[in-house]
């Protein structure tokens, strides 16, 4: 029996290329899901335009007065909107806000983020620059569950790219983004299919060994 499509809501602050990868994966039949809505904390963010062009509900909800976190009345408005849309899972796609306990409690272990590094290495901002400056030989991206820490939640999917001698931050970031656009739909399909099982900090997958 086919599972019902996973109801995904996306939060983003910028261009929304990862949101587009989800839209494309759904259209191609690689992701059994539907996007129920997109919220941005930036009024003119292109991610909202992408959503509207594809017939997806799109809302600007200010996070003021805070500059770097989602808390207080704004957080309550986000939660109310996400619940009204019937979201099963929240996908952060370049959402430049720290997620606080209220939203985490409203969607426990159901908020995902994609980070441009192979966590736990290089958490935080501009991770591709961190990897390049450190002299790492491999970079990549990680889809993980959001928890109360900074890029510290359980890891669901990782994809890697080599760091080339001639790489600049821009060329490395571009190659990582190619992998992001594959990793996010892959991770969400694991959730949608019921294949991913979270035990403690580790994800296991149906058909493989799981802890007793």
Which fold name fills CATH's third level, the topology?
Answer: Rossmann fold
Order of secondary-structure elements: EHEHEEHEEHEHEEHEE
Overall pLDDT metric: 95
Supply the number of helical segments. 6
The CATH architecture comes to 3-Layer(aba) Sandwich
Question: What fraction of the residues are assigned to beta strands by DSSP?
Answer: 25-35%
Assigned CATH superfamily: Formyl transferase, N-terminal domain
Domain count: the total is 1
Gap between N and C termini, in Å? 27 Å
Class in CATH? Alpha Beta
Based on CA atoms alone, the radius of gyration comes out at 17 Å
Oligomer: single chain
Q: Using DSSP, what is the number of strands? A: 11
> Which of globular, elongated, flat, extended, rod-shaped describes the shape?
globular
Share of helix among residues? 25-40%
Describe this structure in words.
With 212 residues, the protein is of the alpha/beta class. The chain has one domain: 3-Layer(aba) Sandwich (Rossmann fold). Helices cover 33% and strands 26% of the residues. The chain has a seven-stranded mixed beta sheet. Helix 1 packs across helix 6 (169-192). The longest helix has 24 residues, at 169-192.
């Amino acid at each position: 029996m086919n599972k019902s499509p996973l109801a995904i809501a996306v939060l983003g602050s910028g261009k929304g290329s990862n949101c587009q990868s989800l839209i494309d994966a759904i259209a191609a039949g690689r992701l059994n899901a539907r996007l129920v809505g997109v919220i941005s904390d930036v009024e003119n963010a292109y991610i909202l335009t992408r959503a509207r062009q594809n017939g997806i509900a799109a809302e600007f909800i200010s996070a003021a007065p805070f500059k770097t976190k989602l808390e207080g009345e704004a957080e309550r408005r986000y939660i109310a909107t996400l619940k009204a849309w019937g979201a099963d899972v929240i996908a952060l796609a370049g959402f430049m806000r720290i997620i606080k306990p209220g939203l985490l409690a409203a969607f426990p272990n159901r908020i995902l983020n994609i980070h441009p590094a192979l966590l736990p290495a290089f958490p935080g901002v501009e991770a591709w620059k961190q990897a390049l400056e450190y002299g790492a030989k491999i970079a990549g991206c990680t889809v993980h569950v959001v928890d109360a820490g900074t890029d510290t939640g359980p890891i669901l999917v990782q994809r890697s790219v080599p760091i080339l001698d001639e790489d600049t931050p821009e060329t490395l970031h571009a190659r990582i983004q190619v992998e992001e656009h594959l990793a996010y739909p892959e991770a969400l399909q694991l959730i949608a299919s019921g294949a991913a099982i979270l035990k403690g900090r580790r994800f296991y997958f149906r058909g493989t060994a799981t802890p007793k």
